[in-house]
Design a protein that fits this description.
three-stranded antiparallel β-sheet; about 170 residues
């Protein structure tokens, strides 16, 4: 029997209600601990990639930010445009592994308890940090058109949330 407040029979036995509330609180605390552990491990993730000749190496965090950039050998004599392209390509290569590493951490720490949240997080990371090698395969079939430059909002833009990714 369910009462109007949705607690059903719990209101008839205060001891049972208290035990149920304690169990819920303990479950929430355990879940929070698993997410905290996942967050800590995710913050420790570092991924490094290098270009083909080893002259450019980039290390990134799980949020995609660059933590280290090593230039060696041939990098010193590369034209700046080529060096810039090598750095960006290598950075994207390092970033492309973020989603899988975060998925591993989530699976290890949370298991299959919250698949929707895990899927949303990993899908978001995959869309933010796609595999650049998959893009190279698509380049052959893509028409050659100049890329549009990113649009920046004007200073008088009334929609402040337009560029907010959240």
């Amino acid at each position: 029997m369910t009462s109007a407040n949705g607690l059903g029979g719990l209101m008839h036995d205060p001891d049972q209600a208290a035990a149920q509330i304690d169990a819920w609180a303990e479950g929430f605390a355990q879940k929070a601990e698993r997410y905290r552990a996942a967050q800590e491990r995710t913050e420790e993730i570092r991924l490094t990639a290098g270009n083909k000749d080893g002259s450019v190496r980039v290390t990134v965090r799980a949020d995609g930010s660059v933590t280290d950039l090593d230039l060696a050998g041939r990098a010193r004599s590369m034209p700046l445009e080529e060096l810039s392209a090598q750095i960006l390509t290598t950075m994207r290569k390092a970033q492309s592994g973020i989603a899988e590493r975060v998925a591993e951490v989530m699976t290890d720490e949370i298991g299959d308890e919250d698949p929707q949240t895990q899927s949303l997080m990993v899908d978001n990371l995959r869309s933010r940090f796609p595999n650049p090698e998959a893009d190279e395969d698509d380049e052959d079939s893509a028409p050659e058109t100049p890329a549009d430059e990113p649009r920046r909002p004007s200073a008088d833009s009334s929609d402040e949330d337009e560029n907010n990714p959240w």
